Amino acid sequence: MGDDSFDLVACLERVRQRDQVASRQLVEHLYPLVIRIVRSHLPRRVAEEDLAQDIFLKMFTRLAQYQGSVPFPHWVSRIAVTTCIDQLRAQKRRPEFRWADLSENEAEVLDNVLTDERETTPGDALAARELVYKLLDQLKPDDRMVIQLLDLEQKTIAEISTQTGWNQTLVKVRAFRARRKLQKLFQELQSKEKS
Amino acid sequence: MNKFDQQWRKLTALARQARDPRDTAMPYGFATRVTARSAAAPLSLSTAAFGHIAVRGLLVAAAFGLAAIAIDYTTYVTSTQTDAVVAADMVGELLDPS
After folding, report:
1. Is A5 strand, coil or helix?
2. Phi/psi of residue A190, each to 5°?
3. Domain membership flag for residue B63
4. Does the distance separating the beta carbons of B15 and A31 come in below 8 Å?
5. How many domains does chain B have?
6. Do B4 and A126 touch (CB under 8 A)?
7. Residues A2-36: pLDDT tens digits?
């Protein structure tokens, strides 16, 4: 998506006329956007390339439905997000979260966050990221999506509403429900750590 | 802000600092594969549409057939009975000595 000279409107017009070259150019143009969404919401055991391919196939199938009311990349983002949610829903079972499953770095970061005994270092960032994803894995797919967009990607409620198609009240309810579940997980971890 | 909120904010702020080192470059042949598959998809869609229409046609034809049988049933029964009467008359005429 870094190519500013790319004429998206003209490309879409050619894609509608079943121009294969334009279709390839469109995929190339949107790939970085789609793969970033896939990677941040990737369900376990699903290959990122397969998921990206599904998203692009949906995009081509639904292209006739695109009316231009939102920018095309936003429209594709919504397809990507809903495809990821569908994949997460399909997995159903979520692995149990146990202190013993944490790596040494993750346990250290969590301990630090819970006890607030020392300042974090930049080296803790990767472990914190892994830890957050493990915690998010415990949430329902829709709740997980909201928290991830809200707290990790720092999107506003309005932006999440646009990206997911859920109304703003629903987004707030899901965020509240997710935070309550995360709080419960934190409490469980604290009690396990003490024991 | 309660204690959990503080802890969660601290954790997510730290997690946000971790950049994904993976490249966003597209795998070789990806666009060609996707384009080829999407080009094949409308064919299957039209096949599915044809199948749908064919099933509807079959149902309509079956309904017409049943309606035709229902309407024509009385005519069929009547004509069968008439045929029987005519045949009986012919036999009667042959056997009639007068």
Report:
1. coil
2. -65, -40
3. no
4. no
5. 1
6. no
7. 566 788 889 999 999 889 999 999 999 999 999 98
